Amino acid sequence: MKNPFKYGETVSGEYFADRKKEIRDINECIKASQNMFIYSYRRLGKTSLIKNVLSLFKDEIIPIYIDLEKSPTINHFLKDYSASISQHFLGTKERLKEIASFFKRVIPSFEFADGKWRVSFDFSRTTTGIDKALDEVIEIPPKIAERCKRRVVVVFDEFQEIEQYNGKVFEKRLRASIQHQNDVCYIFIGSKTHIILDMFTNPERAFFRSAMVYPLDYIPDNELVEFIHGRFGSTGKSISKSSARRIVQLSNRSPYHIQLLCFHIWLVSGKRIDETQIDKALDEVLSAQNELYYSWYDSLSLYQKAVLLALSQEREIFSQDAILTYELKGPSTTQASVKALLRNNLIIKTKEGYDIFDPFFKLWLMKR
User: Fold this and answer.
1) pLDDT tens-digit readout, 124-182
2) What are the Cα distances from residue 229, in Å, to 18, 163, 234, 266?
3) Distance CA 288, CA 223 (A)
4) Which residue in 171, 220, 304, 312 could disulfide with 300, CB within 3.0 to 4.6 Å?
5) What is the CATH number of the domain that holds 357?
6) Which residues span the domain enclosing 171?
7) According to the 3-state scheme, what is the secondary structure of the chain?
8) What is the reported pTM?
């Protein structure tokens, strides 16, 4: 029987934990061509959410998706974005000419393999320069919308990564083009909240007030409990609501970590899941991640380690009690370590203070 849980990849259909309100909101924005800026901490399912929404439109829209984390330079961006733009036209050999008609400054290369057409671009050979090629490529989506008589939806995942291209110059050029485009909806997704929020809420930034700001919160506990209960039940295994709730708490409501832990629980459990099997699966997960977690921990300075260990027990580490209990130094020294841990994506800032980003890393630290 197939494991009813998946992790480490975009999930859809029965594997997707429903976000009915968010799906409805994004759906309406796309219909209205309202640009959106969706942000949250990592591993809350932003990419899966967007791809599930896009699938609902089927042939009503033309989706263009690019993960900017995989495009570290402007050259990579041009190559990957151009390939994403071209996906809609790769069905038949006859339609390949349409791709070439959109690109004047670079010649696409086509390859037919495994029964499918593939396209690639090499902008390092462009004779007109990267800047002019960039201007051409970012103007293509509205041309596709006009030719195909369909709305185009462009998704820039991990949008904050554009900061590494050319500072704020790239931002301004992209914004200048986007603001005049018709029948194109842009969805910007970001995970590094302190960076991405500044891009869309700072009056001095190019994308200030250019899109609806939409924070993606944690899925409510009750919905996650029902999801866990239902997925186990779909394969003939039973789990109590209290045990499902414990999984949610151990995973700190992170969809990725819930799927990861439940995947292993399913492997070690019988027909009825109890606390012993949850503990066994959790130990297996922590053991499998031990080398990774140790590498994170070992890369830190001695005082950063002390701050991290304190945060595994206490969110408000600047209180007098925390300073005394965990033998912390003065606020300025501790704040410097906190900033370093934030930069390394090991901790996040919450309403209650600071917390360790990976809930299983937190459990690993608590065992030290």
Assistant:
1) 766 567 888 888 999 999 999 999 999 999 999 999 999 888 777 889 999 999 988 98
2) 14, 42, 9, 12
3) 28
4) 304
5) 1.10.10.10
6) 18-215
7) CCCCCCCCCCCCHHHCCCCHHHHHHHHHHHHCCCCEEEECCCCCCHHHHHHHHHHHHHHHEEEEEEEHHHCCCHHHHHHHHHHHHHHHHCCCHHHHHHHHHHCCCCCCEEEEECCEEEEECCHHHCCCCHHHHHHHHCCHHHHHHHHHCCEEEEEEECHHHHHHHHCHHHHHHHHHHHCCCCCEEEEEEECCHHHHHHHHHCCCCCCCCCCEEEECCCCCHHHHHHHHHHHHHCCCCEECHHHHHHHHHHCCCCHHHHHHHHHHHHHHCCCEECHHHHHHHHHHHHHHCHHHHHHHHHCCCHHHHHHHHHHCCCCCCCCHHHHHHCCCCCHHHHHHHHHHHHHCCCEEEECCEEEECCHHHHHHHHCC
8) 0.86
Residues in the chain: 368
Amino acid at 21: K
Amino acid identity of 48?
S
Question: Is 12 inside any structural domain?
Answer: no
210 is written with which tokens? 């250019």
Rounded Cα distance between 101 and 215, Å, is 38
Place of tokens 């185009």: 152
192 Cα distance to chain centroid: 10
End-to-end CA distance of the chain: 37
